[in-house]
Write a structure and sequence with these properties.
353 residues; mainly alpha; Farnesyl Diphosphate Synthase; 2 domains; two-stranded parallel ribbon; 2 strands; 1% strand
Length: 353
């Protein structure tokens, strides 16, 4: 007899391949290299979180409505899908998306919930928990910063606020990734969950801090300053001053201090990578790629004198990424080679500080 909870392989295939690839080519690459047992829980968690992010970013709707839909989605992730609420959400949001992929993502929520319900209990619990935490970070953005169209600017108050924020939107992913990996990858069963989860949290924070520092110009122009107000004031600048390119030199000490913090987080990311047995090739690649790209992005950022200007983004080139992929695939099984690659990137960042 067929399992009544089984999800048809066609929707599963469409969700975790075509749809996921359309909303994130970079993450899709990571997902495809992961061991098979990790692809479904991690891929589904990403799709649900990406749906929540799309809801939070739909500026055509008033902020209060976006918050309401975001909270509804979180409740359904935790307690089970509500077909009526999902239909209302899709009707209100899907047609307001400028991207076909975002519209298809929201329209696919019922199938995503079907897949969640059909998952093994422990995997489903972990997916529900991580999506709930990630939506708290999105809710924080919507409730603590001004409306994107208000032309006002809000800022985090202190370093503790930034640390808490980076946990909600990325550090928690390191925890989730660690537990899912231990659950599914035999050679990792001997890992200390507490120790490796702590490293995973710092890994996630490293990646998010890189995003925060890289995205300062764009975030400022939607009313959000994630650089703490106390640190800016100590440097003699205000969040509003950052809107002027002439402030780049005066604000650079704040950038440098946060890059130092991010590099400290990346040290934990390095420990995380080297704790993965070399025979776990796919998992090492999935962990090594964001680590290398993150350090490469920091190098571009620290060498960018116009880091406060939206027209001069701090991004690694596509050619750089392709070269990194080739070199890392060749060297991922050698701790010595990977230490050299990572060390060179880190040294270039530190020399430019």
């Amino acid at each position: 007899m067929a399992d009544p909870n089984a999800v048809n392989p066609v929707p599963r295939q469409r969700l975790l391949t075509d749809l996921l690839k359309s909303v994130s080519r970079a993450f899709y690459l990571t997902l495809r290299v992961l061991p098979i047992g990790l692809r479904e829980p991690i891929g589904l968690a990403y799709l649900l979180a990406r749906s929540a992010d799309t809801i939070a970013d739909t500026r055509a709707l008033p902020r209060e409505e976006r918050i309401g839909f975001l909270l509804s989605l979180r409740q359904q992730v935790q307690d089970g899908a509500d077909p009526i609420a999902l239909a209302e959400m899709t009707e209100s949001l899907a047609g307001r998306q400028s991207s076909d992929s975002e519209r298809h993502l929201l329209e696919s929520l019922p199938q995503a919930f079907d897949l969640l319900e059909a998952m093994p209990t422990l995997d489903a619990q972990r997916v529900r928990s991580i999506v709930a935490t990630l939506t708290q970070g999105m809710e924080f953005d919507l409730t603590n910063f001004p409306d994107e169209e208000s032309e006002e600017l809000g800022a985090l108050e202190g370093d503790a606020d930034l640390d808490n924020y980076t946990y909600m939107v990325a550090g928690c992913v390191g925890e989730f990734w660690t537990h899912i990996s231990i659950d599914h990858i035999g050679p990792l069963r001997r890992w200390d969950r507490v120790e490796m989860s702590a490293l995973g949290v710092r890994f996630g924070k490293a990646l998010q801090m890189t995003n925060v520092l890289r995205d300062v110009p764009g975030d400022l122009r939607i009313g959000r300053c994630y650089l703490p107000k106390t640190a800016l004031e100590a440097a003699g600048v205000s969040p509003e001053d950052l809107l002027s390119p002439e402030t780049a030199d005066r604000a650079r000490p704040v950038l440098v201090d946060n890059i130092h913090l991010t590099l400290d987080h990346y040290r934990s990311a390095e420990s995380y990578l080297f704790a993965i047995p070399r025979r776990c090739l796919r998992l090492r690649l999935a962990v090594g790629w964001p680590l290398l790209i993150g350090l490469g992005t920091l190098e571009v950022l620290v060498k960018n004198p116009r880091w406060l200007e939206p027209d001069y983004p701090s991004k690694v080139s596509r050619g750089w990424v392709y070269r990194m992929l080739v070199v890392s695939v060749a060297g991922i099984l050698s701790n010595s080679i990977m230490r050299v690659l990572i060390g060179r990137l880190r040294a270039r960042v530190e020399r430019a500080l």
